[in-house]
Amino acid sequence: MKLPALAVSLMLAFGSASAATPTATPQGKPFTWENATVYFLLTDRFNNGNPANDLAYGRKADAATARGYMGGDLAGITAKIKEGYFTDLGVDAIWITPPVEQIHGSTDEGTGKSYGFHGYWASDFTAVDANLGTEQDLREMVDAAHARGIRVLLDVVMNHTGPVTAQDPVWPAEWVRTEPVCGFKTMKTTVECTLVKNLPDIRTDSNANVALPPSLVAKWKKEGRYEREVKELDDFFKRTGYPRAPRYYLMKWHADWVRKYGFDGFRADTVKHTEPGIWKELRKVAGAAYEDWKRANPNKKVAGAHAGDLPFFMTSEVYGYSIKSGRDYAYDDGTKVDYFANGFDSMINFSMAGDARQGYEQLFSDYAKALHGPLKGVSVLNYLDSHDDGNPYDALRQYPLEAANKLLLAPGQAQIYYGDETARVLKIEGAEGDANLRSFMNWDQLKSNARVGLHGVADVHDYWSRLGRFRHAHPAVGAGTHQMIASIPYTFKRTYEKDGVLDRVVIALNLPLDRAVPISVAGVFMDGQTVRDAYSGQSAVVTGGKVQFEARAPIALIEQ
Measured between alpha carbons, how far is 38 from 381 in angstroms, rounded to an integer? Predict the structure, then answer.
């Protein structure tokens, strides 16, 4: 469980540690996805860069609490990229919710009137939703990220369209099924069904040739791009030899975002609700598009040494998957699927929020053993809270610093959910269900250093940033082997050696704040060697296998 004493000691530490400005973190080693820090945000809830596009397509501000559009947009993300917000936090990749045009109308399914602000209710997979901005806004966002060494992941949906409303007609039966609703007990009743009532399920199982949905044809003709879209589809099917089946239309449309804007990877939505093999096919199509984009845009690739040479990346949302499951996800009927063998480099780890209630050593050692054992060669994306997990680690943000330690220092990839680093409370008065998780980013609290629980929001942000920049500089943190060095103070080392890159760090937690203490670095750094604490910015010389920093800080992040 969480440790109130730790929270109090960390709070007290800010009196000295946060006031000092550490020296710049070293440039760091070459990027590896196994150590990636991914920042996940709902575009509509992050930052409003252009209030003129807050309500498009006749949408109204009449939704239930936190279920309508709030004004966040692509221009808002770009502004924060250019401010250096993500760089200061050590972010390697930004994952945005689907920017595709959503159903125009609203639904009312028991939680009050709801709109598709989240991006998962598509009506046209080929257009940018006007509430979020324009194609130029999207291009500027990806370009701005790449110029600063940050990758961008696109959230893609192969499973369903948006709900049916008076403004948004259902697609033809050869495209979607509208029943039965999933029972979730077997693989069949998880895949061959609609997730919920009135969420049409795309017939990803079909190999039959289908014509374009009439509503899409009419829309494209009205927008003056029907001939262009059809020609591109004709060229795609001729080039690939795929049948004109629903899933291949979607693969072409999803890959177009990569070919056009240079997205570096996909986060795949609702993966276990589709046939596993389609993701391997999507990976092939999107990977080819990525290489095409890089050849056509050599000056727009991700900045940094070797950064633009990595292949297309994909991580999966297989709801309920745990790192403890190894390579296989087991359906309730006993069917097991290795999704890593179906196009994915990584899987989202749904057990992290619960596992983080353990002590540090158990959490870290268990994860390291899994990643360097059954999962060697692939990775997991750890998170403590998200847009649809109703059991977050710390909804009221009572322990935001401990959360930073456990997420950013755990082996594996780290997913920061927008506001983790600013103690954005995951509870909204009057909201129901997952709406509580989706408040607007608390920029005002960050600016004023407002208090949330025991901490000032700016102090929490400062702590997350120090850990994030250290993690960004050192692949050993997320991708290295783990070994405890001492229990008091809790000290461990991480070592990474791959493709000619060697990286070693030592980290100490729960340090006393009333005195400086020696920290063991034996076996990592040699006597006489000068090392640096990236948290405080101080340097010291190793003596007798130990090092001592005069900073009164709760943590030491020791690097060469």
Answer: 8
| Amino acid letter, 522 | A
DSSP per-residue string spanning 349-418: ETTHHHHTTS-HHHHHHHHHHHHTTTTTT-EEEE-S--SS-SS-S-TT-S-HHHHHHHHHSSSSEEEEET
84: number of Cβ within 10 Å: 10
What residues contact residue 540 under an 8 Å CB cut-off, 6+ apart? Answer: 530, 531, 533, 547, 548, 549
Backbone phi, psi, residue 281, to 5°: -65, -45
Using CA atoms, how far apart are residues 489 and 492, in angstroms rounded to an integer?
A: 10
What tokens were used for 137?
Answer: 């806004």
Tokens representing 336 are 């097991």
Predicted pLDDT at 303: 75
In the DSSP assignment, the letter for residue 272 is: G
> Largest Cα–Cα distance of the chain, in whole Å?
77
Give the pair of three-digit tokens for residue 391.
Answer: 């059991």
Instruction: Provide the token pair at 367.
Output: 């994860």
Quick check: is 281 catalytic? no
Q: Which of 269, 402, 462, 533 is catalytic?
A: 269
Check pLDDT > 70 for residue 4: no
> For all residues of the chain together, what is the average pLDDT?
94
- Round the CA-based radius of gyration of the chain to a whole number and report it: 24
pLDDT tens per residue, range 109-132: 667 899 999 999 999 999 999 999
The highest-level CATH class for domain 41-350 is alpha beta
Mean pLDDT to the nearest integer, 317-327: 97
Name which of 354, 317, 346, 368 is nearest 478 in CA terms. 368
**pTM over cut 0.70:** yes
Boundaries of every domain in the chain: 41-350
Q: CA 112, 115, 119 angle in degrees (round to 5)?
A: 135
Nearest to 314 by CA among 276, 352, 350, 351: 276
- β-strand pairing of 481-487 with 455-456: unpaired
Shortest CA distance to 554 belongs to which of 396, 402, 358, 394? 402
Q: What is the residue-wise DSSP string for 100-150?
A: EEEPSS-EESSS-EE--TTS-SEEEEEEE-TTT--HHHHHHHHHHHHHTT-
Instruction: State yes or no: is 92 an active-site residue.
Output: no
From 34, 140, 264, 317, the catalytic residue = 317
The per-residue pLDDT for range 497-517, each reduced to its tens digit, is 999 999 999 999 999 999 999
Q: Which residues is 113 bridged to in the sheet?
A: 108
Q: Which helix (H) or strand (E) holds 215?
A: helix 214-223
Predicted confidence band at 306 (pLDDT cuts at 50, 70, 90)?
low
The single residue listed with the structure tokens 């039959």 is 208
